[in-house]
Amino acid sequence: MRAELIPILSVQAPDQLIVGQSSNFQILFNRPTSCHGFLRFDLASRDNEKTIGLIAGKLGTDCQSVDEPPRENVFSFTPKTPGLFVFNFFTGKDNAGKDTFVTFDVEAVVNPN
Predict the structure, then answer these.
(1) β partners of residue 33
(2) Cβ(87)–Cβ(53) under 8 Å?
(3) Right CATH number for 2-58+67-109 from 3.30.300, 3.30.1340, 2.60.40, 3.30.1330?
(4) What is the value of pTM for the model shown?
(5) How far is CA 67 from CA 32, 75, 109, in A?
(6) pLDDT surpassing 70 at residue 113
(7) Is the CB of residue 55 less than 8 Å from the CB of residue 31?
(8) What are the residue ranges spanned by the domains of the chain?
(9) CA distances for 59 relative to 33, 65, 66, angstroms
(10) At residue 101, what are phi and psi to the nearest 5 degrees?
């Protein structure tokens, strides 16, 4: 199996995070071919900035193009400290070959209960 970074189409981010609780980001993506399937999310962290890429596994060689609705997966994140978190989700490359991202700033707060 070969792992490949593929573009994320869209992200639904939570409005707020609660310290110590898992929150979900809804991710939409297209499979490049019939041989591709979701493998994992790749997370790079620098303090409160998180960069996320979707990794697809490619299995087989007789791959066909696919005409199907986008697939959905969930990226879960649990903040350990309060504060502002910046999430950069990989959306592909621009015409110059530079990586592009959709970015969300989400505040993590201590549960008031």
Answers:
(1) none
(2) no
(3) 2.60.40
(4) 0.92
(5) 10, 24, 42
(6) no
(7) no
(8) 2-58+67-109
(9) 10, 14, 15
(10) -140, 155
